Amino acid sequence: MSRTFFVGGNWKMNGDKKGIDEIVDFLTKGPINSSTEVVVGCPQCYLIYTREKLPSNIGVAAQNCYKVAKGAFTGEISPAMIKDCGCEWVILGHSERRNVFGESDQLISEKVGHALDAGLKVIPCIGEKLEERESGKTQEVVFKQLSALLPNIKDWSRVVLAYEPVWAIGTGKTATPDQAQEVHAQLRQWLRDNVGAEVADSTRIIYGGSVTAGSCQELSKTGDIDGFLVGGASLKPDFIQIINARG
Ligand SMILES: O=C(CO)COP(=O)(O)O
């Protein structure tokens, strides 16, 4: 089964209109391999600006949203609002949401369920911390995070699962291709055992954590890494090389 290579950029809380114009400029010039699906996650206040400036072959994601359509939830945005801004995607459960803002597996699962029900495509993120890896708990941790999502995912065709080991995010310590491939294969097997063969074969599992133009090619050659979620390097023209990692 061939899975379309997927490269997401997560701008996090970076950028301003001028910086976005520069990113739009290098993404527009490319050239971008037409067989790679590209999505950029931008700050909420720039969703409309970014959507209007980027070519239509590049998707735009919010970096978070709440679990209901509207109401008295000061500071939150809903999937309906993201769609109303012309965007189709949302990143949910990023490690910074989990670890800086204290989001639980349960809350993230409810957010994923509502975003899917509202018609968005979702990039849920999972990944272990350094101490969890060092104590041999990586598989246990990511399976627990994935299990929590399961009850709220009815349509896997609109899910791209991101494995982002926390120790690799923003640290310059990219997982080796073997380290990443090992977890991706375990996650795919988990999907096979707990959801079904078709979903396991077709769901994109992407890797995030200090991906660079230098590391992307080797990572992309492993069997179960179907793309990347890129932080820092997605703000620079190097992102084009990462998008084109599969050649
Ligand atoms: O968190 C990430 C993407 O969501 C990864 O960030 P870096 O690529 O900056 O390590």
UniProtKB/TrEMBL annotation:
What organism does the record attribute this protein to? Armadillidium nasatum
* Name of the coding gene: tpi1b
**Mind listing the UniProt keywords for this protein, alphabetically?**
Cytoplasm, Gluconeogenesis, Glycolysis, IgE-binding protein, Isomerase
Q: What PROSITE patterns does the database record attribute to this sequence? A: TIM_1, TIM_2
Q: Which GO terms describe its cellular component?
A: cytosol
- Report whether Transmembrane helix shows up as a keyword of the record: no
Could you identify this protein by its name?
Triosephosphate isomerase
Keyword Cytoplasm belongs to the record: yes
Q: What does it catalyze? A: D-glyceraldehyde 3-phosphate = dihydroxyacetone phosphate
Q: Which CDD domains match?
A: TIM
Q: What is the lineage of its organism?
A: Eukaryota, Metazoa, Ecdysozoa, Arthropoda, Crustacea
Enzyme Commission (EC) number: 5.3.1.1
One GO biological-process annotation of the entry reads:
glyceraldehyde-3-phosphate biosynthetic process
Instruction: Provide the family line.
Output: Belongs to the triosephosphate isomerase family.
The GO molecular function terms of this record are: IgE binding; triose-phosphate isomerase activity
Q: How does it assemble?
A: Homodimer.
**Could you tell me which pathway this protein works in?**
Carbohydrate biosynthesis; gluconeogenesis; Carbohydrate degradation; glycolysis; D-glyceraldehyde 3-phosphate from glycerone phosphate: step 1/1
Q: Which residues form a coiled coil?
A: none
**Main enzyme class:** isomerase
